[in-house]
Amino acid sequence: DQQVKQNSPSLSVQEGRISILNCDYTNSMFDYFLWYKKYPAEGPTFLISISSIKDKNEDGRFTVFLNKSAKHLSLHIVPSQPGDSAVYFCAASASGGAAGNKLTFGGGTRVLVKP
Amino acid sequence: NAGVTQTPKFQVLKTGQSMTLQCAQDMNHEYMSWYRQDPGMGLRLIHYSVGAGITDQGEVPNGYNVSRSTTEDFPLRLLSAAPSQTSVYFCASSSRGRGNTIYFGEGSWLTVV
Question: What SS3 state is found at A100?
Fold first, then answer.
């Protein structure tokens, strides 16, 4: 049973418009959430994160929103650029022990930004 | 900057063969881990280590062994390869503490026939 789910396997958006990626989780012990971006034949690279004590975190064009009661988070990319075309993974971790390096990932959403 | 280096990048194994995927990091990170990526499954944690001499199992550890004799290296051993182990393997490292960036290697593509 997947504890982190990304229900949209793909997303197509026009350049300059907003991309919204969604992620749901079931484990209430998760208290730290991350988004990773992955290009083909490369490893995932960190994009943005949010702690459960916040409901929003912003970094340039990227904003992550967390709704703890719904166990839902989303990533907004505004404006979308062709270089944003990649697979995006949502990940979560729980506090305690070596939690910093124990991530549970969603299945990924492939984003295509059309010029 | 080397970061996290994985070797080999591509490998084809026959069922029953053993092999080791190498992982090295030059950032003096305490935490290292191995993930596998399968289509639609995201990345799943195989084994992780919080420091030299300390390892523990992740979500999918069966069929894999690890050891951590130095801070820099964290090899992953496949004891007797099976077709179900065909996957892309990623090594990751980070410094101690929540919120520190986790760096991933470029991946090792393994096919077991």
Answer: helix
Q: Model confidence at B2, in pLDDT bands (50, 70, 90)? A: low
Give the C-alpha separation, A2 to A69, whole Å.
19
Q: Which amino acid is at B88?
A: V
Average pLDDT over residues B87-111: 90
Phi-psi region of A87 (alpha: psi -120 to 50; beta: other; left: phi over 0): beta
A44 interfaces chain B, CB cutoff of 8 Å: yes
pLDDT of residue B1: 57
Low-confidence ranges of chain A (pLDDT < 50): none
Neighbours of B31 (CB within 10 A): 23
Mean pLDDT of chain B: 93
**Can you give the C-alpha Rg of chain B in angstroms?**
13
**Minimum CA–CA partner of A44 in chain B:** B104
Sign of CA pseudo-dihedral A75, B89, A26, A93: negative
Count interface pairs A-B at CB distance under 8 A.
79
Distance, in Å, from the CA atom of A91 to the CA atom of B37, rounded to the nearest integer, reads 13
Cα gap A53→A57, rounded to integer Å = 11
